[in-house]
Amino acid sequence: MTLPLPLTIDQTRLLAELHHLATLTDCPASTDASLPQPATAVTRLVFTARDLQARAWLTGLAEAAGFGVRVDAIGNTFIRWEGSDPSLPAVATGSHTDAIPYAGMYDGTVGVLGGLEAMRALQEAGFQPLRSLETVMLTSEEPTRFGIGCLGSRLIAGVLAPEPTDALPDLLPETDAAAPAGLRLREVREAAGLRGDLLSVRLPRDHYAAWVELHIEQGPLLEREGLPLGIVTGIAAPASYRYVIEGVGGHAGALLMPDRRDALCAAAELILAVERHTREANARAAQGGHSGVDTVATVGSLQVHPGAVNSVPSRVTLTLDIRDTDRSRRDAVMEALHTDIAAIEAARGVRITEFAINADPPTMSSPQILAALTEVCRAEGLPYKRMVSRAYHDSSFMAAVAPVAMIFIPCRGGVSHRPDEYSSPEAIALGTRVLALTLAKLAEA
Ligand code: GLV
Ligand code: MN
Ligand code: MN
Fold first, then answer.
1. What are φ and ψ of residue 393, in 5° steps?
2. CATH of domain 11-236+362-443
3. Tens-digit pLDDT profile for residues 199-247
4. How many angstroms separate the alpha carbon of residue 404 from the centre of ligand 2?
């Protein structure tokens, strides 16, 4: 292989682009001086005016670098550098640019802008790939607006049926100026100029020769161990559920305690049961010689009806996000929870309905890509940690159309999904360099 040497990642350009993207936010500027700086709070929900602005800007960057751009019916954006044999399956990288409310500026964006920078750096070094190279910006990795994460990559993988997906309700509150309440995904994407059948988003198995995603770790291990890079061997299995708890409401003064069927009290029991079963699963795993931290569960959103100070809650809707590196352990927590739910219903006279949103398997990285990453790290003299990803990523679904692996870079304190998320410019540039060298290696094979 004739790798271009020296390969220069333009750290200044890449950081300027990351900072510009962070200005495309629906959060008001932070006035909280107590937050570590920079504390850019980023909210960029899919298909809002802000997201469309970010998409147009990214397309402009890609075109300015001379790359081709294709956008599919869900808005996945494919930035392509044609190889000398365009008939061969391409080698691809990418991630997402949408952000949950009050997020930081690095989650996903490092993988998209880092991918673009890797392609530009290879181009500027005079490299000509045999296989085409692509950087893909995948739509709605975050579940905030339509309730399910990795919308774009799930559709690529063919794990979501087009019609029910198009019927997903828009969860944005009606106060959002970009869209009135009560819309469905189909109307929202069409308003964003994305027409066409969602079936057309699906790609065939082996569409790509390889997929490598660069991402911040979102955990503390690399920083703690003083290591610059993580090579991700697998991604934990995520699942999510929505619960509707129906009780009986009434006057907060007049409805006597023995007569109550309070939906929020039932929800509180359910939430604590989730926490208890998760902790117990970890304790059992630790006794069995496992790490004892691999099961995680979160109730992160809760709506109380009617939500008035002097009204007994009659209905509660809540979400559960549960993940594990071991799918059967995750499923065992759910089984224990189901027993508790039946007991809560009986004891409190409420009805609890569960809606499964997703229950995905874990993802294993490709040994060939892991070997390529390892060779690049060794050649560059870089220490690395082989590790699992506890966060989910689009790579989980890109695995249906490509062998996959991921590169992690450290982030301060392991903090993510918070405004004070931070990775250093040097860490970002180094991750981008390793990505570029790996893409080049894979594009020659
Ligand atoms: C991705 O944002 C995740 O929740 O893991
Ligand atoms: Mn995220
Ligand atoms: Mn992410």
1. -150, 165
2. 3.40.630.10
3. 999 999 999 999 999 999 999 999 999 999 999 999 999 999 999 999 9
4. 19
